[in-house]
# Entry
Amino acid sequence: MYNYFYGWYLKCQSDTQTLAVIPAIHKTENKRTCSIQVITDNDVWTVVFDADSFRRTKKNIFIGENQFGEKGIHLAIHTPQLTIMGKLNFGTLFPLKYDIMGPFALVPFMQCRHSVRSMRHSVRGNVCINGKKYSFQNNAWGYWEGDRGWSFPKEYIWTQCCFPGGSVMLSVADIPMAGIHFTGIIGVILWQGKEYRIATYLGARVVRIQNKMVRVIQGNLELDVRQLEASGRPLKAPVRGNMVRTIHESASCRAFYRFRKDGCTLFAFETDRASFEFEYFS
# Structure
């Protein structure tokens, strides 16, 4: 059997707090394990479980007593370093019109495949982490995506943010394929109920990557993203199925987003609620 990983990324965000949870299963030649990573504005924890703790149905993932799915999240983790208890209920999910990978979803042997389960949904509930309460009530929103394959890209940028009236996700990555490398782009802007797709397979191209700023153009669409202040926390990422790479994610940091169509700005704002991974070295 080949090496692989499969992980979901579920983020919940209020005006003042952020909680992201990553349940995952991973396999190398020698072992198969599963894990849950928990990220807040200021902390990150990784809990490793036996593979037997993992169970998946059509709509849910279970790891031990923890459950993740379209109805919400139930957390029950008890270790010497981490105690988490709580439940978060999701409102109606907002899935994409079609697979974010487009025609690349049919290409075999890709290093990593991305999915977006919901661009934006309401979140209600409470979670207690080591005695600290995380409360998601009015104006709390969630985002849900996933990755599967055997390794993360060597270099990539990823950002996501829910904001009044919409949600945005952008990923720019170095993609190896058939002995060559190219810059792959996938992004979605949800704005006032309408989905705008930006992707390599639709003609998108990067015109600038500099000083933690990315500008992507596709026809009459233009998206600018800039990380203004980082608060990166170390996360584990896969290398041939083995969770040995350390990346850094800012679950909530200052960033600027601007989206233009036909030369007119649809939105432009600065926020301290952006999520960012900037693993680009050139």
